[in-house]
Amino acid sequence: MEFSQGATVSKTALTGTRVGPRFKQIFPGIEDFTRTYVGRTIVSNGVTHFGEDNFLYADSSFFRIFSFRWSKGPQCPPEP
Question: If DSSP codes are grouped into helix, strand and coil, which group holds residue 65?
Fold first, then answer.
């Protein structure tokens, strides 16, 4: 998307929130979609709280579309 604010022209990789659901309705080849947003949030494990500047919010379909190898830190419980 390209938009102007006065004399300043900006480009960004954003679309409205309705694009994915609508495209899935009208284009039979689209199997799924996911929307993402990076923002600030407070993360907590019930005891410790901290601010996270690059928190990724995503639809639940995110992990049906993308796969990641997870790494675990010292506070993760051992695998069964």
Answer: helix
Q: Tell me the residue range of the domain where 52 lies.
A: 2-65
State whether residue 66 is helix, strand or coil. coil
With tokens 């993308």, the residue in question is 66
Say if 74 falls within a structural domain: no
Is 48 strand, coil or helix?
coil
* Whether this model's pTM surpasses 0.70: no
40 within a domain of the structure (yes/no):
yes
Closest CA to 59 of 24, 10, 29, 11: 24
| Cα distance between residue 41 and residue 43, in whole Å | 6
pLDDT digits (tens, 9 = 90+) for 6-38: 999 988 877 888 999 999 999 999 999 999 988
